[in-house]
């Protein structure tokens, strides 16, 4: 079924773990995105980021080395009520004309070297596409400002989109 992450404002104490981000409210999925192509969708509220990262991204400290999209080990789309921006290696691109939706689709073509973000409603509209030569396995990543729910895409609707 669907998986959900909700950010709580009360402090929760967890023991230190090398794979836990300790400076930002973000996470990487446990399993790598193995294979050639992957597609997933999330529903979101508040501010959040979605993207992909190498497992080697730093998890410790509150700096650009450990923030999704702010280093050379990750690519992300920042979503908020004010709009979208795409981030990689401390470079951002505001995307003012992108269609707004509470559901975002991500399409990873590992061998083709691209990760694409879509606004998903009755239609799908490309928000941004990164081109890169990936050198390590990638993991789906999420930065949570309020809540993020991983959704099961409607295969009938999207099967002929890619």
Care to describe what's here?
The chain has 162 residues and is mainly beta. The protein has a single domain, classed as Sandwich (Jelly Rolls), CATH 2.60.120.920. 2% of the residues lie in helices and 46% in strands. The protein has one helix and twelve strands. The strands form two sheets. A six-stranded antiparallel beta sheet has the order 1-12-3-8-9-10, with no helix packed on it. Strand 9 and strand 10 form a beta hairpin. The protein is globular and about 45 Å long. The two termini are 24 Å apart. The model has no long low-confidence stretch (mean pLDDT 84).
**Share of helical residues:** under 10%
* Gyration radius, rounded: 15 Å
Tally of structural domains? 1
Mean pLDDT figure:
84
CATH topology description:
Jelly Rolls
Order of strands in the sheet with the most strands? 1-12-3-8-9-10
Structural class: mainly beta
Order of H and E elements:
EEEEEEEEEEEEH
Distance between the termini: 24 Å
CATH class: Mainly Beta
Sheet with the most strands, sense and barrel status = 6 strands, antiparallel
Low-confidence stretches: none
CATH architecture label name = Sandwich
Fourth-level CATH superfamily: SPRY domain
Overall 3D form: globular
Strand content: over 45%
Number of strands: 12
């Amino acid at each position: 079924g669907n998986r959900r992450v909700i950010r709580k404002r009360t402090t929760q104490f967890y023991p230190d773990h090398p794979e836990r981000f300790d400076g930002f409210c973000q996470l990487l999925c446990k399993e790598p995105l193995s294979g050639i192509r992957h597609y997933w969708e999330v529903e979101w509220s508040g501010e959040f980021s979605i993207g992909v990262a190498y497992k080697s991204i730093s998890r410790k400290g509150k700096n650009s080395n450990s923030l999704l999209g702010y280093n050379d080990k990750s690519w992300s789309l920042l979503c908020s009520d004010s709009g979208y921006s795409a981030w990689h290696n401390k470079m951002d691109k505001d995307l003012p004309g992108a269609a707004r939706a509470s559901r975002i689709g991500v399409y990873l073509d590992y061998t083709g070297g691209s990760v694409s973000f879509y606004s998903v409603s009755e239609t799908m509209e490309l928000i941004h596409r990164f081109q890169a030569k990936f050198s390590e396995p990638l993991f789906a990543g999420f930065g949570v400002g309020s809540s993020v729910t991983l959704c099961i895409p409607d295969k009938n609707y999207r099967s002929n989109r890619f």
